[in-house]
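Exercise 7.
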Amino acid sequence: MAIRPIDHGIIALAGAGAAGAGYFGGGSISGGRQAVVDKFAFPDDSRTTLGTGLAVATNSLAGMANSGVAGYFGGGYISTGATANIDKFSFADDSRTTLSTGLSTAVYIPAAMANSGTAGYFGGGTDGSSYYTTVDKFAFSDDSRSTLSTGLSAINGGLAGMANSGTAGYFGGGSKYPNYYTTVDKFAFSDDSRSTLGTGLSVGRDGLTGMANSGTAGYFAGGYQSGGPNVSTVDKFAFSDDSRTTLSTGLSTACRYPAGMANSGVAGYVGGGYGSDYITTVDKFAFSDDSRSTLSTGLSVAASYLAAMANGL
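Solution. The predicted structure, written as tokens, is:
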């Protein structure tokens, strides 16, 4: 099967070096939440901020994309509580629309991933009283929503998603207090069936993020470990056999609730989060050797509980 570009949550493209951009949207900031969407151009990592942000200031949301067409930010927490809203940004002109059909349940701290060209998925989350195993699927042909008959293996929030476009998507980590999960669930795109990897995350945590180099490997980064410490850990899962390694170089700052996205075939990016305070930092991981650099220009506003998605075409 041909590998198609995807996004995470976040992936991006087929074809190393092609032009495109990644987007970080929403999040918690000092004093509240925001609607800001920052755009990073992949050719030079320069940042602009979209004139039109999210429809409503939102934190604790998730992002995924249909590379070359549009990106989606969905779920989260707004001034009135959990939301089911999904904002769609056209990559042609960065214009925003809001889907008439949102998530099946209003939730915050869900995760998302996508099979670019076919469908995107939002999984898990909480409405503040209950946690969910629900996985909603949005067909990119018409943005219609269905709900998978098999959801996550455990009720879960604060998890992360990433995908090997054309093959399978993965939801990893998360928690429902007092349980912090190492679990990684794998959904085969051929029939949406779920299996659970024999090897999960290197440490149970929530508030992590995911990104992927489609066709090669996916990454789960950062998060909050049981007992309180933020982590800088980056776990890498090889798509050939789902084996896990842990990068010798993790994030530049141990943090929870950053966001991740990627220019598949080139590099992955992890931005924002909360360490000792909200941060603007964007770390870049070269897929050729997993080396890390930090962009000279970070987010326009220090934020955590944000989301990301990418267009690699």
